[in-house]
Sortase family protein (Micromonospora parathelypteridis), 221 residues
Amino acid sequence: MTMRNRGALAALAAGVAALTVATVVACASQPAGNVGAEEASTLATTPATPSASAADGPSVPVTAGELPAGTKTVPPVRLVIPEIDVTATVNAVGINERTNEFEVPPSVDQIGWYRYGPGLEATSGSVVVAGHVDSARQGKGAFFRLRELNQGDTLTATGSDGTARQYRVVAREEYAKTRIPLDRYFARDGKPRLTLITCGGPFDAKARRYRDNIVVTAVPA
């Protein structure tokens, strides 16, 4: 695992980008609780363990797994989630070289795909997309209502090849940012799945960030 790949994961321990928000209203309506956590866990080949704290820096463990040799990566370019009225452009992102954080697009109506992980063509591993929940300057983000998704909801990810791929939600989980099992969600092995991540939980006004991450896992329909 290169430092480039490992460093990009630090953002989720510190927060999916450093959101600047004015109020806790964005996460005032929380889901009734986690659903499908066990099913999400079984999608990974190896058991996940809690990640190190954000203070430990960018050395976040990632489940082993290599992309198939000779495979052309197909990045997602558009995501549609009818249940929560999302139609968003997806941009390929990596890490911010200055902050070592997952570089979510600055425009809150767009989301980012982790380009060092699997693409939509992959037959194994987790395709990760992350987005803002909101912003003090721009308002509600593309993933403002991500916490409302439930098992059985459907979404469509369209790739750069023009193919629209259907997914079905199997899990919705909430973690404190220091406890999210990054090795599971950024894995290149295990069953194919789409992982959606945003911020959630109460807003820490002093730290100017949300306490938690909301993670939704979907599998090919």
Notes: The chain has a mean pLDDT of 79.
